[in-house]
Model the fold of this input.
Amino acid sequence: MSSSKAVVLCSGGIDSTTVMAIAYHQGYDLYSLSFRYGQRHAIELEAAAQVSARYHARQHLVLDLPLAHIGGSALTTSLSIPKGRAYSAIGTDIPPTYVPARNTIFLSFALAWAEVIGAQDIFIGANAVDYSGYPDCREEYLAAFEHMANHALKATVEGSLRIHIRAPLLNLSKAQIIATGISYGVDYALTHSCYDPLPDGVPCGRCDSCILRAKGFQEAGIPDPALVKRSGV
Amino acid sequence: MSSSKAVVLCSGGIDSTTVMAIAYHQGYDLYSLSFRYGQRHAIELEAAAQVSARYHARQHLVLDLPLAHIGGSALTTSLSIPKGRAYSAIGTDIPPTYVPARNTIFLSFALAWAEVIGAQDIFIGANAVDYSGYPDCREEYLAAFEHMANHALKATVEGSLRIHIRAPLLNLSKAQIIATGISYGVDYALTHSCYDPLPDGVPCGRCDSCILRAKGFQEAGIPDPALVKRSGV
Done:
């Protein structure tokens, strides 16, 4: 078991929660990093806080980022979020929920924090299968970021730190991600996925993220515990 | 003359102002980008606004970044800023004014904005000579960032955009930068360099940035117009 430090990008969704569980079981001291970036709902930050506490993060840092001032995304502006798309349509294009350079910005802050606390490893729930529409969730992008990161810092240039971008879910389907998490005992009732929840935090059930989540649980052969919890069953 | 768009990182200092002049004279439509990131003084943002106006920036975007929450730098925390160092000592180490991953974070936001407005070029006043202590001001770092950037965006992956990181000052001394700017008619009285100015905005004259500025003007053989302006001569 390692006792190294790791920065984990934590959105409170299925992927980052599974990554948090993996890093926790690998023995890392976890430093959880979330962002308030103008997304439409605060509920995902509540989920991120619960997940961070569950995995005994040494610190959970929530940073405010002005992505809405840059625009270009349905998640941070009043552009319309696609609803009711067929699963087969998801991933065939880059949808308007794409946020320009989001993972580059998120990883850049993770990189800064990694240097300050002395963490070699940055975990991200990037996934190239069910979200293949997003360019910054692909292996070649993550490899290029890692290469850049090792030229960017005082600590990497001086040789005291070598940054590794860890994306253990990169080539898994949503069902495989869920099965992996279940094997680690993840409580997915804590997680939140919807891009555009109702005012009371209930998922819309019709955005791409809700559709991928539902299909993942269906294929994994288990009910979504967040739905079970809400229905009071 | 090009009429393409360019994002220019603008701190209001000598280097970024010179870069702004270069990009302006190359015919770009300029989109100026500055950051309020917990630095000790607001005066550099006033300088950035004046410089952006002087070069007819189509837009001057000032973004708030939570770098102080990450820490690790004398510029964003209460760590002491070195004063009165000999010029020969500057650049032999990485000083406490280093901000972890600063250029990576700044360039990441520039990248997002570049995609939204359709700019191929991002200008940065990085300089490897007089600031050789900063790892993210070196050619290999900038090349690695550019490579990563071209894997990061919807527009670069789809082939509608190719990002170029332009650092025209990279291998110039401060005196050469000033001479270049003078040849373009830059008014350096607009610029601000000091890391730790007095409450009325007057430069301390003793931080590394003040020392490099003074040496640059001395070697360029001209008086610093900001000093001339202040002294009322």
Summary: DSSP finds nine helices and five strands in chain A.
